[in-house]
Amino acid sequence: MLKQEITLDNLSNQQKDIVHKVTSQQRLSIEEGIELFNFDLGVLGILASEINKNKNKNQQKVFFNKNFHIEPTNICIYDCKFCSYHRKINQEGSWEYSLDDILKTAESYKDKDITEVHIVGGVHPHRDLHYYGEMIRKIKDILPEIHVKAFTAVELDFMIKKAHVSLEEGLKKLKEYGLDSIPGGGAEIFEPEIRKQVCHEKSTAEQWLTIHETAHKVGLPSNATMLYGHLESKKHRIEHLDQLRSLQDKTKGFNTFIPLKFKKANNPLSYIGEVNTLEDLKTFAVSRIYLDNFDHIKAYWPMLGKDVSQITLSFGVDDIDGTIDDSTKIYSMAGAKDQKPTMTTDELIKLIKEAGKIPVERDTVYNTIKEY
Ligand code: V47
Ligand code: SF4
Questions:
Q1: What's the distance, Cα to Cα, between the start and end of the chain in Å?
Q2: Where along the chain do its domains lie?
């Protein structure tokens, strides 16, 4: 393949071995994964793009979907240090939409060409799985064809325990209510010391992994994320990817991996600042190279911005999430450039085509709806 296009002269022997392994589709070790961060960005782009092409049957496809978000509440029992979004009950800036409000939102999408609703929010102390299950059931009464991708593992952990049922029972019950898949949030960074510093109270890495493993077992596919660019090292990033790769070997239940860039506004970790675009592109490319058993890598454009998201398409990314319709506040409250995140289908298509790729509208589990 593209080995000849990469000037090997400037690489160390270890790096030459890594290029050989990647180009011959061999799995990298943790040490080799860490070394990837020392590669020239151009080389990482070539390697990641080639893997991407192989994954998509030699075609330059980039997927997107038509979706909207519901964030039922920002009231949260936890206090993650990177989070600009959560509030306590009655605290200024807190919200909780009533079930009626949420159903009105669902009504407003009745005649729109939307395939997915993404529901996430804070961990509300008074809400259990039956409350959220009923919410899903009623949303589906209004939008029977919609795919409900809802609740991070951290929200699930709390709402299932609050209903006093086992994890497996709880997930099966939510599936009966109409849950179709699980988003990737709450993973943050698995390394215990850093996790303690950035989100010490909430579900552990082991709990996050067990929840996703059990979800896959009961037939709920899921996504995976990693929050990068705060206190973690490159080693912690690769160890995080390694744990995801091992679980994917076991269950094959992950649809996609989404690296989430730490955004600094209005949270206690602001002092760290944000990593630069070079670091973003390296992290996306390294993720594409290391996660050899993940079919897709997603750039979540409300977090990265439209311009950088477009560039990630040359660094291993083959998915750019969805239209979103200005329905999420998580990143705007943390200082994202697009304070009103919405893209029309035409804008998404243009963004993808400008990068020289083929736009493909997908459903949540990557069935093709339409190629443009
Ligand atoms: O777990 C919170 C992150 C996540 C900040 O599965 C922050 O398709 C950066 O998981 N800077 C929730 N990140 C959102 C999420 C997600 C988003 C898009 C698509 C999918 C999917 C999942 O947001 C949290 C946390 O990692 N987050 N605050 C911040 N200041
Ligand atoms: Fe709560 Fe999620 Fe914010 Fe943590 S990241 S404080 S769990 S809303």
A1: 28
A2: 3-55, 63-371
User: What is the C-alpha R_g of the chain?
Assistant: 20
To test the pocket of ligand 1, the residue of 260, 308, 331 to mutate (highest count of ligand atoms within 8 Å of its CB) is 260
Task: Read off the pTM.
Answer: 0.96
CATH for 63-371, options being 3.20.20.70, 3.60.20.10, 1.10.760.10, 3.40.1410.10: 3.20.20.70
Cα 279 from Cα 230, distance rounded (Å): 12
In the reported structure, the alpha carbon of residue 81 is separated from the centroid of ligand 2 by a whole-number distance in angstroms of 9
Retrieve residue 284's tokens: 């996306």
pLDDT tens digit sequence for 305-322: 999 999 999 999 999 998
Please tell me whether residue 115 adopts helix, strand or coil conformation: coil
- Our mutation pick for probing the ligand 1 site, out of 120, 199, 330, 333, counting the most ligand atoms within 8 A of Cβ, is 330
For residue 313, what are its two tokens? 């398409």
The pairs formed by 111-115 with CB atoms below 8 angstroms and a separation of 24 or more are 112/66, 113/66, 114/66, 114/67, 114/68, 114/143, 114/146, 114/323, 115/65, 115/66, 115/67, 115/145, 115/146, 115/147, 115/363, 115/364, 115/369
Q: pLDDT tens-digit profile of 162-195?
A: 999 999 999 999 999 999 999 999 999 999 999 9
- Ligand 2 pocket at CB < 6 A: 76, 78-80, 83, 85-86, 122-123, 154, 199, 202
